[in-house]
Amino acid sequence: MKSILDFIVDVLSQPAILVALIAFIGLLVQKKSASAITSGTIKTMLGFLILSAGAEVVSKSLEPFGKIFQHAFGVQGIVPNNEAIISLALKDYGTTAALIMVFGMILNILIARVTNLKYIFLTGHHTFYMAAFLAILLTVGHVKGSLTVIIGSIILGLIMAILPALAQPTMRKITGNDQVALGHFGTVSYWAAGEVGKLFKGKSKSTEDIKFPKGLSFLRESTISISITMALLYFIASLFAGVGYVDKISDGQNFIVFSVIQGVTFAAGVFIILTGVRLILAEIVPAFKGISEKIVPNSKPALDCPIVFPYAQNAVLIGFFVSFITGVIGMFILFLFGGVVILPGVVAHFFLGAASAVFGNARGGIKGAIAGSALNGLLITFLPLLFLPFLGDLGLASTTFSDTDFLAVGIIFGNIVKFTGIVGSIIFIIVLATVAIFIKNKSDKKLEKQS
Fold first, then answer.
1. How far apart are CA 80 and CA 406, in angstroms?
2. Residue 395 vs residue 330, higher pLDDT
3. Confidence of residue 398 (pLDDT cuts 50, 70, 90)
4. Average pLDDT in the 209-230 region?
5. Confidence of residue 214 (pLDDT cuts 50, 70, 90)
6. Residue 451: what pLDDT?
7. DSSP notation for 250-308
8. Which of 274, 261, 279, 286 is nearest to 316 (CA)?
9. Percent with pLDDT over 70 in the chain
């Protein structure tokens, strides 16, 4: 039984395999030729593996930067990082998380089949993170046994249907169509960025319309501007940290050379991500047509946040920079007031900050991008403080969840389940179902107007 469960978890927690499987089914349903099915399936998997490789390059480039920054400014505290907290949680919650994930995904498909919330959440690793997250909250709230799996699965399935729907109106503006949705648990940030961006509607040009002077026209290429920006950030942080400390991090490499290499490596990671995204979109959208037509009519694949990066590449750089600076300011405010200090989680500031800026830009141009990513920086700096009490023994670790959906759900549901247990969990499910119905009815009205 355990080996079968492990196999299922391995399949469902790997986005490349999960999405390739969806592409395979979609092409098979369309009765495509064997060569087309093989090609589409492998290219879809390849696209996700390329995207994952790029994300890994970015993360590895940011890891030493986080250490240098922490040493440079002499601050100690909690670093928000999903992977770190999950690695600690799996020992006690692994099996429960796996079961919640499997049944939550089944419920997500059923909701897409029978309602107008036609979003199938395909970001497998984030699904697994949320499943583990719910297992932690329910256990800390003294919900035990099979009820943990049942309640966790229902909440997960509803969240996977509701959040893509929340982001979809702005996603349509970003992509120019309604074929792809966003499936990433930073949606609270993205939605909020879009709403803030609306305040600047018509008051600011798009980030992609930025006109660089002729002598600086090379900065129009995102890989070059990202390389220079990151190299400068590394260089400045290294000066504050001291050459001696940087030598330990860089294995004796000159800090200037190290800064340049890491800055360009970061840009290379972003370039790899964009390449993977383009390949995924080219394959998954046509393949998903089969599932949409036959199994879940009119459904949309909800994919990871880098899916929006190619649509506003200048916003990606602006978003990371603004979100990170906002996080740094927030960190120093927390430091001055004493108590727990939330250090800037550089990976979270990059991915969530960049996507928030793309959403803000879609609604309000450059000003919307800046405001949206700044808001994200504030959210992922201060929300972790409110969430820490609900991690139980894991709260003693020097890390926590980094993305806003985990934090928002954790604060709301954590309070409910902590004080009311199973009854509160049922009430929370009813509230989520009511929200889902509200979003569905709102979507139905829009469809009626269009027709």
1. 11
2. 330
3. low
4. 69
5. low
6. 43
7. TTT--HHHHHHHHHHHHHHHHHHHHHHHHHHHHHHHHHHHHHHHHTSTT-EEEE-GGGG
8. 274
9. 85
Query: Which three-class secondary structure state does DSSP give residue 79?
Result: strand
DSSP class of residue 212 equals: -
Give the residue-averaged pLDDT of 333-348: 78
Of 284, 2, 240, 345, residue with least CA distance to 123: 284
- Per the CB < 8 A criterion, the answer to whether 180 and 121 are in contact is no
Neighbour-count burial for 338-363, b at 16+ CB within 10 Å, e otherwise: eeebbbbbbbbbbbbbbbbbbbbbbb
Is the pLDDT at 3 greater than 90, yes or no? no
Listed in sequence order, the residues at least 6 apart from 171 whose beta carbon sits closer than 8 Å to its beta carbon are 180, 181, 182, 308
Q: Name the pTM for this structure.
A: 0.77
> Is residue 362 pLDDT above 90, yes or no?
yes
Asked if residues 27 and 290 have their Cβ atoms less than 8 Å apart, the reply is yes
Element (H, E) at 400: strand 399-400
Type of residue numbered 28: L
Q: Which of 125, 118, 185 is nearest to 155 (CA)?
A: 185
Residue 63: count other Cβ atoms within 10 Å of its Cβ: 14
Of 34-48, 58-72, 216-230, the range with the lowest mean pLDDT is 216-230
**What is the edge-to-edge ordering of all strands in the sheet holding 300-303?**
119-121, 300-303, 181-182
Q: Name the β-bridge partners of 121.
A: 302
Would you say residue 115 has pLDDT above 70? yes
Sequence-distant contacts of 393-399: CB under 8 A, at least 24 apart: 394/85, 394/88, 394/89, 394/136, 397/84, 397/85, 397/88, 398/77, 398/78, 398/79, 399/78, 399/79, 399/80, 399/81, 399/84, 399/85, 399/88
Helix (H, G, I), strand (E, B) or coil at 16: helix
Nearest residue to 166 (alpha-carbon basis) of 158, 154, 156 = 158
Strands 181-182, 399-400: pairing kind: unpaired
The rounded distance, in Å, linking the Cα atoms of 343 and 380 is 10
Q: Determine contact, residues 207/399, Cβ cutoff 8 Å.
A: no
**442 — alpha (psi -120 to 50), left (phi > 0) or beta?**
alpha
**Selection from 300, 238, 285, 235 nearest residue 263 by Cα:** 235
Cα 167 from chain centroid?
12
